[in-house]
Specification:
The chain has 153 residues and is α+β, with helices and mostly antiparallel strands. The chain has one domain: Aminopeptidase (3-Layer(aba) Sandwich), CATH 3.40.630. Helices cover 33% and strands 29% of the residues. It has 5 helices and 6 strands. Strands 1-2-3-4-5-6 form a 6-stranded mixed beta sheet, with helices on both faces. β3 and β4 form a beta hairpin. The chain is globular. It starts with a strand and ends with a strand. It binds acetyl coenzyme *A.
Length: 153
């Protein structure tokens, strides 16, 4: 099992994994327009921490680091259906947090969580109480519908 973080860098192997991750998001997040998922996963300002098993992607988190404001916005998070509730989601989030701190210098994460995923985010240390200075994120985040804003630091 490997946890690897890449963006759209033109490397064939990374592109194959990003396309696989995009397909997992499209299936697991049916309320998200597919074009929107493709656009953000392939956008060079976004990065994806992926769970790779036997050279196949089984899940991941796509996020956008805002380096000068020192926070990351989590856009999508999912594990493929037959691999859920095996602990991969927790390990994925832990790898993401470490990478974001070490490689991106981020201190906070913000996300608009699907209401049915709020329990997962709470277990990962996120809260609905947003303490992060509003001036640093206002106007940057894309508001989701039927989603709950959450923060982790
Ligand atoms: N609601 C409440 N608790 C949950 C949920 C949930 N939807 N999913 C997992 N958990 C709990 C588990 O029971 C577990 O608790 P435990 O540690 O006490 O046993 C803990 O969270 C972690 O479980 P993992 O096995 O690590 O989680 P998993 O690998 O299944 O990944 C994930 C969680 C990513 C939510 C996965 O179930 C999934 O892909 N779901 C469908 C897509 C989805 O809802 N994604 C999030 C949308 S919000 C966004 O993308 C910003």
């Amino acid at each position: 099992l490997k946890f690897l973080c890449y963006s759209n860098d033109g490397v064939d192997e990374h592109m194959i994994w990003l396309v696989g991750l995009k397909n997992i998001f499209a299936r697991q997040l049916p309320n998200m327009p597919k074009e929107y998922i493709v656009r953000l996963v392939m956008d060079r300002t976004h990065k994806s921490m992926m769970v790779i098993r036997n050279n196949n992607v089984v899940g991941g988190i796509t996020y956008r680091p805002y380096a000068s404001q020192r926070f990351g916005e989590i856009a999508f998070c999912a594990i493929t259906a037959d691999e859920q509730v095996k602990g991969y989601g927790t390990r994925l989030m832990n790898h993401l947090k470490q990478h974001a701190r070490d490689a991106d210098g981020l201190t906070h994460f913000l996300t608009y969580a699907d209401n049915n995923a709020v329990g997962y985010f709470v277990k990962q240390g996120f809260t609905k109480e947003i303490t992060f200075d509003k001036e640093r994120w206002q106007g940057l985040l894309v508001l989701g519908t039927s989603r709950t804003m959450m923060e982790e630091y």
